[in-house]
Amino acid sequence: MRLLVALFAVLGATVVSSLPAYETREPGKSCAVEGPKPVFDYEVKILIKGSSARAATLFKKPHFDGVNEGTDVTAIQTWYDSCQIFEGWYGGWDKAARSIVVEKGFKCVFFTNADCKGTPVLQLGDKKRFAVLGQLPKEADGTLRSAKCPKF
């Protein structure tokens, strides 16, 4: 399936911290936004033909690159708020995620172990806005093995 990702800047965007910059994309241009936290100052529209029941979208490449559902990009579905183990998912998603978008109203907790136990390496989510990470932090980049994505 085709995946279209479009980022639109919201007026009055703010810098979330003074730490190293992560990059996000708008159609035709890039912009750097500082901070290790997800970017909340961008509205994200993800259109995947035939599916709208997602809590989060995982991408195998940084900056939301990829068009093939399953092999380049996959979803954590909304009806699963229990532990989702990436091992065995179609497309080989164990330790593969490089960028993430969490839908409005969901909080995803990501782990480097395959059972959602222990200390999470990454937590993303917001009640009213998309949480967007175009480049995962070093400790999470290519290391994620499981996640929980309950609604707020």
Automatic annotation (TrEMBL):
It comes from the Eukaryota. Residues 1-18 form the signal peptide. Keywords: Signal. This is Uncharacterized protein. It comes from Amniculicola lignicola CBS 123094.
